[in-house]
Amino acid sequence: MVEHLFDSSGTFIPFRRSVTDRYGFAADGTWIGWLPFGDSDVHGKDGAYLGMIIGNRLFHLSGRPYRGLPGLPGLPGLPELVFSADCDWAGWLPFDDATVVTPAGDYLGTIIGLSDRLMRRRHPPGLGHPRSPSAVTRG
């Protein structure tokens, strides 16, 4: 059964073909987003956060962190990569938070909010050694 989703004032926004469907569609049937992470967060085709499904409502919650590139249906996602100002690969975010780790697995810093600024803690957290992005299981 089709699930219609509404904004906080009750205006129809998108629909899903069922409550378990991972894809959202506009009223004209065009694909506008999906639920790539297995939770209730809806993301656009470009990976941008659109909102969270709560009941039959789609709420846009401010301050939601960027969760990386989820991939497209049928293609694997990629870990979030961090590049230096001169476009060299500086590190990546393997822990689904703002912690940046170098390609060698060392702590590089923490991204501050949405400012794209990197802060280095005086005492880095104990992170262990994450696998490199090339070794991350895709899918």
Task: Considering the chains and any ligands shown, give keywords for the structure.
139 residues; mainly beta; five-stranded antiparallel β-sheet; 12 strands
Description:
The strands form four sheets. Strands 3-4-5-6-7 form a five-stranded antiparallel beta sheet, with no helix packed on it. The protein has two domains: 3-59, no CATH class; 80-135, no CATH class. The protein is 0% helix and 36% strand. It is an all-beta fold and 139 residues long. The protein starts with a strand and ends in a 20-residue tail after the last strand. It has no helices and twelve strands.
Which helices and strands, and how do they pair?
Elements: E1 3-6, E2 12-16, E3 23-25, E4 31-34, E5 41-44, E6 49-54, E7 57-59, E8 80-83, E9 89-93, E10 99-101, E11 107-112, E12 117-119
Antiparallel strand pairs: 1-2, 3-4, 4-5, 5-6, 6-7, 8-9, 10-11, 11-12
Which term fits the overall shape? elongated
Strand content: 35-45%
Structural class: mainly beta
Detail the poorly predicted runs.
133-139
- Give average pLDDT, whole number: 74
Total E-strand runs: 12
Order of helices and strands: EEEEEEEEEEEE
Q: How are strands sequenced across the largest beta sheet? A: 3-4-5-6-7
Tally of alpha and pi helices: 0
Helix content: under 10%
What is the first-to-last residue Cα distance?
28 Å
| Main β sheet profile | 5 strands, antiparallel
